[in-house]
C-alpha cells in the first residue's frame, strides 16, 4: 500500500527542516530534503569553477546529482552534509536555482526519490516548490512562514553564529528575494496548502499542528481531493 506524501515548503529559516524531520519521524516515514540536490549542484558548480549563470553548463552539472533520503550524491558519491551547508554553497544554491534548465534536470530526480519513498511507506518532502510543482498531487501540503527577523535569529542560533546576526539577516533577505522573484517555480504556497505562520510558535507546536492535519486526513479520507484517494488506505 502506498504511503502518505506530505510537502513542506517555505522560505529559509522558516523551520522546514526541523519540522519535516520530526513529522517524518513521528509518522514513521522518510524525510526527503530537496534543497540538498540544489546545494549539491551548487557545490559542484563552485568546485568546477563554473559560471553560475551559464544555463546549459549548470544543467549538465545537475545531471550528475542524485537524491535519496540520506542526502545528495555527486557522480554516485554521497556528499557530506557540512559541505552542503557552508554560507558559500547556500548563496550559490539560491543563485543557480533560478535556472530553468537546472530545475528541469532536478525535477525528475526529486519526483523519483519521492515516489520511491512513497512506495516504502510515505514521505515528508521539503523544499520551495514541492507543493506547487514537484508533487502537486501530494496528500497534505504545508507552507511555513515566519518573520524575517525571527528566521535570522533561528539560523544564527542553529549554526552557533549569534555574533553574525546582521550578516545572516542580510543573506536571508537576499535569498528570499531570489527565491520568490525568480520566474521558474517561485516560492509561493500552493492553492491547497495549509499556511502556518510559525513566528510565535514553538517547534513542537508546529509539529503537532502538522501531525493533527495528517491525522485528520487519515480519519476523514482525503479532503484535498488527491485523485489517488486516501493514501493511508481504508481502515
Ligand atoms: O532548503 P535549502 O535552504 O536547503 O535550499 C537551498 C536552495 O535551493 C534555496 O535557496 C532554493 C533552492 N531550492 C529550490 O529552488 N527548490 C527546492 N525545492 C529546494 C531548494
From TrEMBL:
The yes or no answer to whether the keyword NADP is present is: no
Q: Which reaction does it catalyse?
A: dCMP + ATP = dCDP + ADP; CMP + ATP = CDP + ADP
Could you say which EC number(s) this protein's record lists? 2.7.4.25
Q: Which amino acid positions bind ATP, per UniProt?
A: 10-18
Any one Pfam family match given in the protein's UniProt record, by short name: Cytidylate_kin
The record's Gene Ontology cellular component field reads: cytoplasm
Q: Which GO terms describe its biological process?
A: pyrimidine nucleotide metabolic process
Subcellular location as annotated: Cytoplasm
* Molecular function terms, GO-annotated: ATP binding; dCMP kinase activity
- Residue ranges constituting the Cytidylate kinase domain according to the UniProt record: 6-214
Q: What keywords were assigned to this record?
A: ATP-binding, Cytoplasm, Kinase, Nucleotide-binding, Transferase
**Keyword hit for Mitochondrion:** no
Its family remark reads:
Belongs to the cytidylate kinase family. Type 1 subfamily.
> What's the protein called, per UniProt?
Cytidylate kinase
Which taxonomic lineage does the organism of this UniProt entry have? Bacteria, Bacillati, Actinomycetota, Rubrobacteria, Rubrobacterales
